[in-house]
Amino acid sequence: MRRSRIFILLAIILLLGAAAAYLFLGRGGGTGSEGDATPPPVDVVFVAIAAQDISRGAKIPEDGVIMSRMNANLVVETMISGQDEDEIRSRIVDRIARQDIARGVPLTEAMLTDTSGDLLAGGSNAALAIPAGYTAIAIPMTRLSGIAFAMQDGDVVDVLITLLLVDLDPDFQTILPNQTLPLYGPGGTAEFPSGNITGGVDKLEDDVPESVPFPFGKVITEEVTGSPFHVFPKEEQRPRAVSQRLVEAAIVLHVGTFQLEGEVAGEVIPVPEGGVGAPAPEGQAPVQTVEAPDIITLIVTPQEALALNWAIKVGADLTFTLRAPNDGEVTETTSVTLQYLLDTFEITVPTKLPYGMEPSLENLIIPELPNDQPPEPPQQ
Hints:
Elements: H1 2-28, E1 44-50, E2 65-71, E3 81-82, H2 85-90, E4 96-97, E5 112-113, H3 125-128, E6 135-140, E7 156-165, E8 183-184, E9 190-191, E10 218-221, E11 228-231, E12 240-255, E13 269-271, E14 287-289, E15 295-300, H4 302-313, E16 317-323, H5 338-344
């Protein structure tokens, strides 16, 4: 009984093995049959690779390039490749590198040239941060105009401008009032200037009779007697100040002077407590200080760059204000003048009183910040 079971198990194993062999040979394991799954052969080409670091403007030496085998379906069109190694090498050797090429980088036609002047500029890292259609401009600043040096690269700022305006003669382009005198014709008849000449004089010529009326200054009629008389300005015309926002939401490209090639970044200057030139106390490390920035570079539109350049050249006062990082709200501003301040903030014009302060105050007292004062010289 036990033997018959063993024979039955062996028969079943043989049947399963025969079935597996049939499936393997008939559908997946045979060669040359309809079910053959062997992948087709892949084309292989040679690709030129830089065998060493090649500097911009240098000729490609014979040993500066090697060939690497690569599947054709992985080769990019711009790569220098082909089936013949010698033909590929002849297309590369003794040509000039248009840019710095690192070792192990596949060579392309755009990297090579036959003319020494046809080189790709290296460019600066700062230019990579400027969006298309924008430009960068450097503007001088102080601790007061530069938000107490709170700005950092990538901040968003507005630029305010303040100007002093005066009235000019449109023909002479000089500050009014003009100096005018009557002209005398034959027989001593006074021929006065035409009425479109404005202004007056600050002194009279000695050879002009005082009885002759002058067409300059301002004619005022005295209320009591009714007699007219001329009024001349006592001082030069006073400029009128106006402030307005010039640039909105400009991006700070860099605060301070850009680091030059080869310059040590973050260099500090040791300054002793006694001032520049004084020795540091024995056993005490010198105080480390960093030179304060005096310039800032902004990313603006080309038109804003023109406006900022004009403002710098004419000596206008520029002040920066800091904005929130993601503040994209566009706001409108109104030019600020003395009349705007009086009307908007309801500032009362002081009344003329029969008494006043002593000593007299002719200019505002601007507080001096201790950090802006020059250091006192060390005591001998």
